[in-house]
Amino acid sequence: MEESFHIQWHITSLCNLRCLHCYQEEFSKERDLGKEDLKKVSENLLSTLRDWGRRACIHLTGGEPFLKPELLPLLSHLEISPEVEELGIITNGLFLNEELLTKLISFSKLKKIKISLDGANAETNDSIRGKGVFSKVIHSLNRVKGKYPFEIILMFTVMRGNFRELPDFLKLSQELGVNGFIIERFIPWGRGRERMEEVLTRDDWNEFVELLCNLFSIEDKNLLLTFQAFQVIFKKEGSELLGAPCVLGKDGLCILPNGDILPCRRFPIPIGNLLKDSLKMIWEESELLIFLGKKENLKGKCGECEWKECRGCRSLAFALTGDYLSEDPHCWHT
Length: 334
Description:
The protein is of the alpha/beta class and 334 residues long. The chain has helices at residues 35-52, 71-79, 98-104, 122-129, 133-144, 166-176, 202-215, 279-285, 287-292, 300-304, 314-321, and strands spanning 5-10, 56-61, 84-91, 110-116, 151-158, 180-185, 229-235, 238-244, 252-255, 260-262, 272-273. It contains 11 helices and 11 strands. It has an 11-stranded mixed β-sheet with strand order 8-7-6-5-4-3-2-1-9-10-11, covered by helices on one side. Helix 1 (35-52) runs parallel beside helix 2. The radius of gyration is 19 Å and the shape is globular. 38% of the residues are buried.
């Protein structure tokens, strides 16, 4: 059986925060789809999954997804669809009250709630996400913890100003009783273009990976070379580190609030729109995806590298050089 297809669906651009590293630059609901168009997009997805004989893990996000009135009806529609294996929500965590959580537990496929937190303390986090956000998120986590059947996962975007807090963030996450956290690099798009100085250098990324190795007793950092992101999961027997390879053009995509498809949320080149074209056609006929799928098209050391399955981070290359074919600026491999 084929692995799950992963979809990150941004159902709105509307957000109550203005985080400094945000990949959005527009925060209104002008381009958001209404109920009927959301259903058209979902049916497009589901029909393609049926044709492929695959099931999907779909994470709904924004903006802030809990500001979208159509969120619960969309969850209801996806909940009853056999093509949907699992649902998740990515949120800033500021709207998780008892009334809302009571509604969410009615969706049996809604397994994960992912909450953004970008520092091990209020000073660091709030310098990125806004004054008072850290304490509000902690309050929300305490409200959810142990009372609802969701996996709670923190989302930690590493930047120059916070990446050395990894050990403290690990400790905080354990103390909060969450199920783990996901580590992603800051890639400067949207508002983030104004904070280029916060992008990790190659040496920073190398240092960060060495931090991971020290925390999880990994002797050879090259074992982590091809991963673009990481997830830490907490188990009774201890913490486990998982690596996430790039999904671009392989087993995942991103949907924007207007129905546009991106290969990855941090790779801002639309390859189609689900209100106009079938996902099957977009995915199977996209010249961009076909071109990026051929390692020999990559430039510099990425095109010559012996790690055949690795293509580096095309999003990072694009953001920092303007050329998505250039070599991965963070890769330390020679």
